[in-house]
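Researcher: Please translate sequence to structure tokens.
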Amino acid sequence: MGNITRKNYPVSGMGCAACVARVQKALQQSAGVHAAEVSLASNSARIDYDPSVTSPAQLRQCVQDAGYDLIVPEDDDDSDPALSEEAQLEQKAEEEQQRSFKALKRDTVLALILAATVMILGMAVKDFPGKGWLMAVLSGVSVGWCGRRFFKTAFKQARTLHAGMDTLVALSVGISFLFSLFNLIFPQVWTSRGLTAGLYFESSAMIVAFILTGRLLEDRAKHRTTQSVRELIKLQPQRKDVRKGQAVDVLPGESIPADGTVLEGFSYIDESMLTGEPLAAYKEAGSHVYAGTINGNNAFRMIAEKVGSETTLSSIIRMVQDAQGSKTRIQRSVDKICAWFVPAVLAIALLSLLGWTLLTPDGFVRGLLAMVTVLVVACPCSLGLATPTALTAGIGRGASAGILIKDADSLQVAAGIDVVVLDKTGTLTTGKPTVTKLEWYSDTPQLPALLKTIEMHSGHPLGDAIVTALASQPELDGVSECSALPGKGVSAQWNAQSYYVSNYAPSLPSSFDQWRQDGSTVVFFHDGRTLLAAIAIADELKPDSIQAVADLKELGIQVHMLTGDHPDSAQAVACKAGIEHVCASAMPNQKVEYIKQLQQKGHKVAMAGDGINDSAALMTADLGIAMGKGSDIAINSAMTTIVSSSISKIPELIALSRRTLKIIRQNLVWAFLYNIIAIPVASGVLSRALGFALNPMVAAAAMACSSVIVVTNSLRLLINHKKWGE
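Model: Translation complete:
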């Protein structure tokens, strides 16, 4: 398994769920392919394959043999060599989509004009010599030229003994046209029996026009659902001359070419495409910067540390593509139904023809119309699109807000979460101790500089917080004999006097007890006899933590805090954040046990953390949520990642997942109800009870609308709601 490569490749030529099943089966049966999942919504295939056994060119040939096409990199193409592989494939897919869309648009406009003309001739113009032949010619152009795509695909599928949506359309259009042509040439077959030789050219022309119109609207809507990935790919830096370890000058307004660290200068960087945060981030020497983010008004020099496919942006693109190409358990069940859908429709259409022909006198014509109507009205597209369009839109919407979802199942799991467990340090809090209070009890002017100098040499983690707080003070000369007092603090000599920074001091007032109760670590600066200063150091709550906890509660979710920190500090932070359930001093194995206990009580648990010590708990939870600025182990262990490390994204994630699942259910209910109702009505078995029989033209319009409704409903996920749960 170590040689397995995962790639996402665009697929062209798919029109329905049956097409997806055919392409997926062809790939799965190809040598060297370990797994393949194909998405109709994104027109892409996610393929896990062994490069030593097969190649992208061989995978493409496999898909072409099935009647479709896989867009893969080619050595002899004329793509821009400056573009990454993802950008080249996306560029090819976009060009192919644009060509296909323009051709579809031309055919649709022509089909609508021809259909309207045939309809007017058939229903509003009195008979004249050659009228039938004129209608036949116009309808023939519509069927043979505008509808040629249906026949081409149906023929390719028939060669491999498969059928899809295009098979239904080709059969219905072809039968109605050929039957009308037969009646035009040999009317005596029916008139000799006292029957009318009916012409249904307008039906075949209108079916083509309606279905092409529906497909045009559907393609336009589907294109929008994958917009987020295309926008991310466009953000990739196009400078290919940058190498790892190279010093690079970044000019104002320029896209940063690689992940790295600022060496010289400072600037504000627009990182919204990674974090979803609108405010620019201040960067100075030592700050990390990311490929694809946009520099502000100042130039700076950086050292490139990750380039090309190694960058954070590239990994995000792969993660989003993988997620959009994956399938939920719901979708896999629907795919199994869709595999039987087209054969079932063909069987019902044939039974309609035989039933009307055998059970009613001279019912062949009525049976033929019923068969055509069944073939037209059935819509496997709406079933096939119900889940993937919503998932693609939902995952893309999350990515644009800095919420990375690893796979479709994660999105489905998130919708059922009723308990969120939060780590404290780095998740609820900033993860960096800061001085929150500093009170001086001496007015000697050199003391602040002395305190800073002592802490600069202390090597203690809390010392960095004090040095930062006193950044404006100079380093004091003459300070010597800095030494650690194990478990107590540090001491130093200055002007022949001993000074101490420790957790104790002479004659302490009781007011400092309140500082400790607030969750702060209290440090004292003294000379052994007199208290000189008191410093409160705390890991402060992130600015949005309190609101995030309130938002989770508003969604009906219990919030727990699980930390390895001291109980007093943990309780103080929990009280500020509004969290009632607290477990402190927890080791990694105890965190896992805590998660399991909640699950045993029937809860669906999400765990959010950022440290290595959280990784086991993240994997144990039903949904692991990693903070993007945490450890790589935590991120790899989680099912979702919050790029900005802002926990305000957690309620957004859960609300988005609930809304996505709600729209999937709406789509599936509509798709199933439509087909369950429309197919019996089309067959004519309910015509006596209803008082009418469904016309093939009306059936074509209904089928087209069915797919458009499903895709349009999914696009509601792209709307920026104030509350994602609305």
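Researcher: Any highlights?
Model: The radius of gyration is 34 Å.
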